[in-house]
Design brief:
81% of the residues lie in helices and 0% in strands. The protein has helices spanning 7-42, 46-74, 90-114, 118-145. The longest helix is centred in the N-terminal third of the chain and has 36 residues, at 7-42. It is elongated and about 45 Å long.
Length: 146
């Protein structure tokens, strides 16, 4: 009649799902950190380069928070990997970044909305706000080039 044999099974399943989502978030941030270093080097002016490096610093902060959460949940450090390759072309890289940031907003909000732990909820809510801001900056840089 019930999908879980007991309450502990339900909690464990939710925990495993959260661990997988946090691991995906870590890999996404790890990939963004790498990509934004490349994009900053491709930027044609100092203003854009500095803004992209500032965004990269936000991504490093998110990465560190997510690693902390992962360790709290698993007792182990994550094994981050690059899951998305960044274009070597500035315009294509900007478009990729803005699309990725937009998708990430929804992903982080979903984690925030479903997490039971208030610290995890707040970390992912704050990261989602930052990601939305990043998307706006990438859209601005992209539209200037188009």
């Amino acid at each position: 009649m019930y999908p879980y044999s007991n309450y502990l099974d339900a909690i464990n399943r939710q925990g495993n799902k959260l661990i997988g989502e946090v691991e995906r978030a870590i890999n996404g941030e790890y990939s963004a950190i790498d990509c934004y270093a490349k994009l900053a080097n491709l930027a044609s002016n100092k203003e854009e380069r500095n803004r992209i490096l500032e965004i990269r610093q936000d991504e490093i902060k998110h990465y560190q928070h997510f690693v902390e959460i992962y360790r709290r949940l698993t007792g182990q450090p994550p094994q981050p990997k690059i899951i998305e390759e960044c274009s070597g072309n500035y315009l294509n890289g900007l478009e990729f970044a803005l699309m990725d940031e937009q998708k990430t907003v929804d992903f982080y909000m979903e984690i925030s909305d479903t997490a039971n732990d208030p610290f995890i909820r707040e970390v992912f809510r704050r990261a989602a706000v930052d990601e939305q801001n990043h998307a706006v900056w990438f859209l601005y840089f992209f539209s200037k080039r188009k």
